[in-house]
Each structure stands twice: as structure tokens, then as C-alpha cells.
Amino acid sequence: MEMDVPMYGHYVASALAQLLAAKAVKPMMVKDIIGDMMGTAHAPKVFVAVIGYLVKAADLDTAKQAYIEMGVNGFDLQPGDAVWGEEEIQALVDSAKCDSDLMWLFAF
User: Cα–Cα distance between 50 and 37 in angstroms, integer?
Assistant: First the structure.
């Protein structure tokens, strides 16, 4: 789908973040919602974007609490046998275009 609609992942992330901010979706449901993406290169981008949009829609503390309740570790999102270093993680976090530093999603 992303080939046809380049911003698809951001649309999904933005909509999901709005639903989380409005408490229409519980954080623990996020893993199931993005479950089909798990193990793909899209999952980490969408997940980081969800958190970034949630920071914008609510605030940093709300996003951190939601992250804890989601039960997803940032490193769980690595596709296949990928090994991420600090540069790859920084590029992923930067892709969220969030004013807050989201490196805490990938605390070593």
C-alpha cells in the first residue's frame, strides 16, 4: 500500500495517535492493530510515528505512559535479522519529525 500512497504509514500513525489521545483506543490494543506490520520495515517507522504524533496530540508524559502500556519494546520492531546501531535508530527517530527526542523508545 505504501508504494501507491507514500504517506500511508503517516496517515495510519496520525489517526491512531488521535484515537489514543482521545482515549478511544487503549494503548494495549496498538500491538494488535499494527500486528500485521510486525517484522516488516514498515512497523518501526509507523510505531515511532504513532508516538511522535501522540506527543503532538497530547504531551510527552502521555506518550511515555502509552508506550509503557503498549507492551512493545522499540527493539521488538526490528525486521528479521536486522541489527540497529545508534545511527539507524537516530534516523528512525528523526523520521517521526517530532519536536521531542524519542530516543527513549530505544533505551539501551
Answer: 14
Measured CA to CA, the distance from residue 31 to residue 69 in angstroms comes to 10
1/72: higher pLDDT: 72
Strands (E), the chain: none
Specify the residue for cell string 502521555. 62
Angle at 82 between CA 80 and CA 86, to 5 degrees: 145
What integer pLDDT is reported at residue 16 of this predicted model? 96
CA nearest to 93, candidates 33, 59, 50, 31: 50
Give pLDDT, residue 2.
52
As a whole number of angstroms, the distance between CA 71 and CA 47 comes to 12
